[in-house]
Structures are given as C-alpha cells and as structure tokens.
C-alpha cells in the first residue's frame, strides 16, 4: 500500500478550476442541491465545505506535529470566544481569495454575496472573548501549538434589534443554518461530576486517598473548529464542549412509566451549555454559571491529560507538556481541578501536584471593576463541588502558613489574602485562587497592570512581586485590517509588500508618505469609499441617511456607564443647542455613530441606548441642523458589523473614566484603520498615544490618580453643573422632557449624574468639549488630518496581537514562537 502523505489527503488542489469543481461537487453531493435551485446560503455552505477540506487537512497535519515533537503546547482557557465569520479569514490565510473569486465568478456567483451569508458564532460578550480569538489567530501565525478551550453555547450573545428606540433582545440562533466549520469529535468525550460527597479510602500502598462520589455525571463532547494562521502551516484549535446526558434516558424511570423523570436528566444535562450569560464585567453568583465554568475547565484538563498520554509524556511532568492560561477568573476552578486530577486520580503526592499546578497555570486579569470580581458562597460551592472545596481549604491552609512566615502577626493581611472571604457570609474568592495557583499574573495594558498591583491585587504583589507582569493587548491585523479594509490593504501591499499582515513592524515605512500629497489623496479616497459603504449599510439597517463627507465620530463597544456613552451624548446635545441658539455656530458636519449591546438586566445602560435613539429622533429631523449633525444607533454590534464600521471611523471615541477600562481593543482597531482618537489616559489609550504621538491624539480628562484624589475629597457633581452654563443647559434640556416624548424617560440618567455621577462625567465635560473643539479645527484642514491619520497607522504596528502573543510565549509560557522579521 502507498504511504499516505499530507499532500494526497485532499481531493482537489486550489486552482480556480479545482475550487469550482469541488464547490459544485459539494453543492450537489453534500447539500443535495442542483445549482439552478441553490440559494445564496447553499452557495455559502458549499464554499465553506470546499475551503474546510483545506483547513482541516492543515489542522490535522499541524496537530500531528505537536504530538510527534512533544512540544509544550498552550491551552487558552476561556469561557468566551468571538471568532467572527470564518470563511473570508481562511481564504486570506490559505492565499486562495483570488482563485475563489474567479472560480465562483466563472459560474456567475459573486463571492462577496456568498461571504455576507455567514452567521458568526457570538460566543462572547465583548473584548475578552474577542481577545481570545485574536490570540488563537496569532498563536497559529507565530507557529505555536495551541488549543483554545471553551463552551459550545447553543445560544450565544443575544441579537439586538432596536424597536421604538429601545433595545429588544432576540435569541441568537447561530447554529440554525448549520455550522460547516466544526467537527464533532465523536471519540472525544469527558465525564464531569457534580454534587454528592467525598469519602476516604486506603490504596494498596497504605495511603489515605479521597474519592468523590458525585450525585450527577454529565458528559462533555468536543467540537473542534480549526483556526488558520497567516503565512504559516500551523493551526490553532478552538475546542468547545457541549454538555450531554451520560445516558439519554433514565431507563429505570422509563420502565416504571415515569416518562417525565426519564428525560429530566437529559434536559438538565443539556441545559449546561445552552446559553451564554450576557453580562459583561458583572458577576452574579448563579449556580448554572459555576457549573458551566467547572464543566469546560474539567473537560479541558482531562483532555490535556489524554494528550499527554498520547504523545508519550508523563503526568508527573504535565507542566512540560502544557502551559495553561486562565482568561480571567472564569476558568480559575482549574487550579483545584488539576490538583484533584493529579492527587485523587493519578495518585501524585500533594506537594508534587502543587508544584506542577503552579508551573502550569498563569492568570490574566481583565478588569479592576469590583462588580466583576467572582466569588461564590461557600455553601453553594460546596454543594456543587464538594471535593474542590476541600482542596481549596487544603491550598489555603498551606498558603496562609506561607503568608504568616512572610508577614508575621498581620491578621488583616491574612484575611485579605485568604482564598475564603470571611467577612459576614463566607465566599470562595476566585481571583485569589487564580493568583495562588499561577506562576505569572498579568494585566492587559501598562496602566492596568500598575493599578492591579496597587489596588485589587496589592497584597499578592507585595507577597510575590516577581509573579507580576504586563502584556498589553493586541488585535489581529488579518481580520481587522486586511479583511475589513481592502482599500487600505491595497495601499499597504503596494507600499510595503504582500507580506505586511504577518509583520506589522513594517508599517513604520509609511511615515514619509504622510507628507506626500498624492498619497494623501489616495488615502482619502480609500477612506471615503469605506464611509460610503458604511453609509449605505446605515441606511439599509436604520433608514437614516448620512453624508459620507461628514466627520464620522464613532463609539462602538458594550454599553456601560464607565465607558461614558452618555458623555458623548452630552457633547452631541451641546452642539445641537449651540446651533439652535446661533445658526451660524462653527460646527463641522458630523455623523455620530453609536453601537453596542447592553446587558438585558442593566437598567441605566438600556436607558442610555434610548437616549441615543431619542437624540437621533430629534436631531435627524430638525431642518435647523440639517447637513451638520446626524445621530445613528447601529443595531447589533458584533464582529461582522464591526468589520464594516472600524474602517469608516474618522474619530474613535475612547472616553472611559481614567482607571476603569483595563485596556480596550476597539481603540487599537480604529487607529490601525486610520481613525484619530479622542480619549482619556485610560487603558491602552496611554500606549496608543505614546506610539502615535501626542500631536496625533486628542487627549482630555482627569488622570487615574486625579480621579482617586477627587473621589477621596468628596466629589460634588452639582458644583460643575452650577458653574458651567452650557453643561447646565444641556442637562436641563434632557431633564425637560424634550427627548423621547416622555418627561420622565431620562430622569434616572439625569438624577444619576446630578446626585452621585459615579463616573465623573460632569468633571470631564468641559475638557471633553475643548478636545472636541480641537477635533473640529483639525478636520477643517484636510491635509493635516490625513497626515495624522497616516501617521496613526504607520505607528500602530506594536498593537498587532502577534506582538502580544510573542510576549506571552517568551515571558509567561516559555514556548518558542517564530521570531518576528525585525
Ligand atoms: C475586558 C476589559 C477590556 C479589555 C478586554 C480584553 O474590559 O478593557 O480590552 O477585557 O482584555 N471584559 C472586557 O472586555
């Protein structure tokens, strides 16, 4: 028999002719459709299957390499992933976009229409999930073997529609049109226990061991989605777990005629991976959420152990096979679960298991917000995970001894560091567990990492300063520039060569072109074309007609008070009132574009959305401001829509209160596409401003330390309200009932600002308006604006997620990444 080599594992090649034939084969044979009857969605599925062959062939070869070479692999544990549509990304990475366009064009099918058919997997809330997906992309690109482990939610983040100006949530049915990208790994299933109790027993070496006797066992089945890299044969795997009942029926109940009870367990088991919790940065101690976290983490660790065995590794050297990253505290239970697997199931001694655990895990913190910190009531925790509670007590006991040695007679410190919060009701603190179980702890931007050490993790930083590090976030230039902005990609390819998406340090070579009038003209043309496309989409989705030559002022991200979409609105309304007062007021034409989802239970965030739409209803109709102001709420902000919005942004609004936004990544995406930023010194804005130059960034607002000082001194929003007449006029206008047709509609927003203003909008209002004034002035000088835009792109190379991933590889995971070219 002939040996099967990688090259003959695929039926067809990648010429246009090959691709067309495979496409038609798939249409007819896999989907059962004759070409004449095929819908656009059939075309999408047939093309996806065609491309998938090549992707999967790469993925299995790449995986095999990892097994054979016994390399240390990276496991990225994340409760959320937001990959976005896959098809176009694979075409780019496989280098077959043009051949595919030709293949389809030859039979009268437009590739762009086919691409538009793809539904994205919305398996995350926002930045944290999208970061995980950028990192899988970059891991593949820098040729590191990795698996992103998570949950295959049947229903991801809700679909947002705007009805009568309000957010209405719809169920996300991302799987209903079929998912051609995943492979259900029938052979890979893990059992996960819940509840019950523990018992001790004596093994044949006379050692006392613990056995967990659960009250229920659930099965996790693996679904794999390969993630290709750019210019690399390596693929990452996104391995998501779906929960199933171990037995489909309770046959005993079934035989007794109790049909309801017979299916009950099946339904309960499947519920576990049913739906994503739609809260971003808000912890609610729901039992199902804890179960979800344990479910995917346990499946992942069991799977890693299986792979260790498969590559001939040793359990006692688990950390040599795997570097496991905790993406926030959602998978932090993994620290106790690995201990359980090593000690209870693989009979390792506690101290050996602990050494392995600490060398294996590292932890990324993504937020300083106190309401995001996960803690579980001890009782709830113990009822779901009785063995893990014992293990956590065991870890805590030894850990607190270590603290006592380092800081004798410091009970307050001991209480703060303890894995158990004992103030009043007792809680298990997941961030503390993550810190104790990890050898490295990092924040996601320089400022955030500093603040972490000073605030929420200060006691850990004092105990283990060497554990702390920073890795500033990055974003993939493949999806967010090459795919999202083909016009810009064309210019970059011409100036920098075809390989630019694999090495963003080359962007620096654009700098001299900022002074070249011809290049500036081309740059403007590309930007205008992007804005025209977005304008058409806005009209299609909202009915609002906007002018592409106006300044597109964009704030797209989750709706949250700390991100201060309402500060942006105060500016919009102040401009509106200025024009009403003085029709000749020097206001440059602007289109304000908002987008983002509010957590369904977040009252004020939903009111803020309504305030955007009510402002739009007023402003967009008013002939007095026609041609100067438009306000749009772009519904259902997700990765797919984002790819249309970022390249059309002139101004990127990054206006969170300093010290609140850990990093932000939308800020990077817009600047990389040529937007100028108006922003506070918060998160990665600080580093973006350093990179692009203060003169190419509109800075305003209090610094993080000024914020602390102001709050400590007793902040009084009323004093700002009283001393600034424009601010007063704007707030009074909102309070007057002129918006939305109901005088009480925005009372809660106004009251919140006047009596408390927790995110200091009033304190930053004047500085924000001044910065916006500077924006308007620079916009008036189109050459100067364009130069700044070019320089933004030229200097943003550092914010590629390839750079971030190389830093993780070097400083945290200790694995070799393909070096960057420069
Ligand atoms: C968090 C933070 C963002 C950060 C992102 C990725 O709020 O500032 O950019 O993680 O690290 N929940 C989030 O989106």
TrEMBL record:
The modification N6-(pyridoxal phosphate)lysine is found at residue 669. Its cofactor is pyridoxal 5'-phosphate. One of its GO terms (cellular component) is cytoplasm. This is Alpha-1,4 glucan phosphorylase. It catalyses: [(1->4)-alpha-D-glucosyl](n) + phosphate = [(1->4)-alpha-D-glucosyl](n-1) + alpha-D-glucose 1-phosphate. It is an enzyme of class 2 (transferase). One of its GO terms (molecular function) is pyridoxal phosphate binding. Belongs to the glycogen phosphorylase family. InterPro entries: Glycg_phsphrylas (IPR011833), Glyco_trans_35 (IPR000811), Pyridoxal_P_attach_site (IPR035090). Gene3D superfamilies: Glycogen Phosphorylase B. Pfam families: Phosphorylase. Its EC number is 2.4.1.1. Keywords: Carbohydrate metabolism, Glycogen metabolism, Glycosyltransferase, Phosphoprotein, Pyridoxal phosphate, Transferase. It comes from the Bacteria. Allosteric enzyme that catalyzes the rate-limiting step in glycogen catabolism, the phosphorolytic cleavage of glycogen to produce glucose-1-phosphate, and plays a central role in maintaining cellular and organismal glucose homeostasis. PROSITE patterns: PHOSPHORYLASE. One of its GO terms (biological process) is glycogen catabolic process.
